[in-house]
Amino acid sequence: MQKKIHAVGEIIFPILLFLFPLLKVNQGVDLMDTAYSLGNYRFFPQTEGVWVLSTFLSNVTGYLFTKLPFGDTMLGMKFYTALFISAMALLAYRFFKTKMPSWMAFLGEVAAIGFCWCPTGILYNYMTYFFFLLGAIFLFRGLAGNRKACLVIAGVCLGLNVSVRVPNVLEVALIVVLWYYGAKKKKNFESILKETGLCVAGFLGAQALMFIIISVMYGIGAYGEMIGGLFGIAGRASDYTL
């Protein structure tokens, strides 16, 4: 009996979580936001400007997906982009089943997948969730397990997320958790400061890398022009503010 329960938690539940987001990839045609995003991916090498750079990493990822088998079809792209939800479900399930019964973690992830109403082709949404999830998990591992490398990786994940979608820069506030955890564990100020420095170093390192890549591809002033363009748009449309 124990072996059967173990098999369900270790094999059956993960398989179901992987497949659930893929069930309806062959249903529905969206010609609005999804097609707009797919157009950005398809013509990425020929496009430039604020929108390309403000969601740079998601556009690059989408472009790479178009090069995969059936990546030139909406069905293929819906399949590839839905894999981000499968990956998040498996990551979160693996993390939470060590904190609670596996059936509870499984039902929580099924519910979370069920709330993913946004079309998966809009990668800057799902990649935002993906990197934030990774950042949170690595931050927890770094604090609970006293793993300094995990704190740096958490910062890198949050830093890369800014290149997925620029307003994600506010997610750096997750690092505040360090101070809460440090206070709960009665750590000294210097220890908390060092841990914060590791996270911030990872964040800034990822930002520096993306700045260099964008500058090489589009010119040294491209990043600054993109930021200025976003603030200009934010002044006219509240949906694009931080």
Brief rundown of the structure:
With 242 residues, the chain is mainly alpha-helical.
Architecture blueprint of SSEs:
Blueprint: H1 2-19, H2 33-42, H3 50-54, H4 56-66, H5 74-96, H6 102-114, H7 123-144, H8 148-164, H9 176-184, H10 189-218, H11 222-234
Helix pairs in contact: 1-5, 1-6, 2-4, 4-8, 5-6, 5-7, 7-8, 8-10, 9-10
Provide structural commentary.
The protein is mostly helical and 242 residues long. The protein contains eleven helices and no strands. It has helices spanning 2-19, 33-42, 50-54, 56-66, 74-96, 102-114, 123-144, 148-164, 176-184, 189-218, 222-234. Helix 1 (2-19) runs antiparallel to helix 5 (74-96). It starts with a helix and ends in an 8-residue tail after the last helix.
Q: Which regions have little confidence, pLDDT < 50, spanning 5+ residues?
A: none
Mean pLDDT, nearest integer? 89
Helix and strand composition category? mainly alpha
What is the subunit arrangement here? single chain
How many β strands by DSSP?
Answer: 0
